[in-house]
Amino acid sequence: MTVRPGLRSGAYSHLRPRHLATLSAAYARDRRGRARYRLLSEAELLGTRSSDTAFVFGSGRSLVEIGEDEWAKIARCNTISLREFPRQHWVRADYHLTAEVDFLDEYAWRIRSNPLYSETVFVVAGGFLAHMGNELIGRSLLPDGARVFRYRRRARTRYEPPSRTPRELVHGYNSIFDATNFAYAMGYRKIVLAGADYYNKEYFWLEPGETRDYEKPGIEATRRWPQAEAIVEMMALWAREIESGGAELLVWDSRSLLSDHLAVFDRSALG
User: Can you give the residue range of the structural domain that contains 78?
Assistant: First the structure.
């Protein structure tokens, strides 16, 4: 087993041996697989920004109501994708964040087969504990030659203000925070959250009221998102933090629970 420096001192002694072996193998594969990609420095990553506005896309079902003309206007801005958004065929993805993944091979296939991800910068969680991110790189599951930027997550399931560097992103209670923090660290002046509904758990690729077949027991699509209260509260605090940093945090859909604290984006601003 390849042992990362620090393991012998007990840094990961809380992990079960089998889990530790799995993480160690993925970590070793990651180191070998990096040669297939162009790894960006922070300066190179920041140089890819081409707009002052970024749209951050969750996977809520409200996205199906965005019209073709609106998608074309959104495409004039930069777009940040996460989680299951590669199932879409609406808009080019400038950046895609990967940390937690449900079914890795299927997820990676969707990315590789979607032409809207052909020029994407892949922002992939790294470090010893980043199992899925390390597998994605180590097994060469992203498009050959893709641009990749590695980051580390911090502050899982607790509040922390957004970081100012894309190398370290706050996770909080949901992956929407990683992506929002990324947008803020990239220097966008307007950050618009779309498909971040939280009033239910419906997804854009499923029928209305349809529950994902791999949800945890007791979770239903028509019910409010678990941890919705914590997510909304933390995002409200972030909106103030981001405003003090000279940027705006907005929400696309007025029905989103986030609209209780975030201003709704003025769609006429798209032209």
Answer: 17-270
Would you say residue 4 lies in a domain? Answer: no
pLDDT at 1: 39
Can you spell out the DSSP letters for 159-228?
--PPPSSTTEEEEETSHHHHHHHHHHHHT-SEEEEES---SS--BTTS-TTPPPTTPPTT--TTSPPTTH
Sequence-distant (6+) residues with CB within 8 A of 125 are: 98, 99, 132, 133, 150, 151, 152, 153
Let me know if residue 124 belongs to a domain: yes
Is 74 inside any structural domain? yes
pLDDT, residue 144, reads 94
Name the stretches of the chain with pLDDT < 50: 1-9
**Tally of domains within the chain:** 1
